[in-house]
Write a structure and sequence with these properties.
The chain is an alpha+beta fold. Helices cover 46% and strands 18% of the residues. A four-stranded antiparallel beta sheet has the order 2-3-1-4, with helices on both faces.
């Protein structure tokens, strides 16, 4: 390490990276669509800022591209029917630590488990079962970028 580098304070650099806002994507699924306003309020109460919103009905080809890794699973036909049965709301959200923060706010995939482990989470409050769990959230920056292109363009 260069001698001058070791004399620089590290904290401002760490603090800057911890305070940097990032964006993420959420999809309010067909079962949550009728409660979209309440779900968005819940997100906003957790410091998420709504950057963009799109209401759409997903096509089977969009679902096939989105869930390409799951197409050979036995539950895929049911998942496809569910996601194409009605409108969804696609949200671009922003805040510090948005991707991980949104995953915490929505709670576990299974709403029954969410009610036990995270009773104030979106899935605990609005979800019904593992499939009909009201909301999807990007799980990484790479996933966010791909889902934004697929679902917002």
């Amino acid at each position: 390490m260069e001698p001058w580098l070791s004399s620089l304070p590290v904290w401002p650099l760490v603090e800057q990276s911890l305070c940097r806002k990032e964006q993420t994507l959420a999809v309010i699924k067909p079962d949550g669509f009728s409660q979209a306003a309440d779900i968005v309020k819940q997100l906003q109460s957790n410091d998420f800022h709504l950057i963009d919103v799109r209401t759409t009905t997903l096509t089977t080809s969009t679902v096939a591209e989105w869930y390409h890794a799951k197409r050979n699973e036995s539950y895929y036909p049911s998942l496809e029917r569910y996601l194409t049965r009605g409108p969804v709301q696609v949200l671009i959200l922003e805040r510090v630590d948005a991707i991980a923060g949104l995953r915490r706010v929505i709670g576990p995939t299974d709403p029954h488990l969410a009610r036990q482990l995270a009773p104030r989470s979106i899935r605990a409050l609005f979800g019904t079962n593992v499939q009909e769990n009201a909301i999807h959230a990007s799980d990484s920056l790479a996933t966010f970028k791909a889902e934004r292109i697929l679902l917002m363009d």
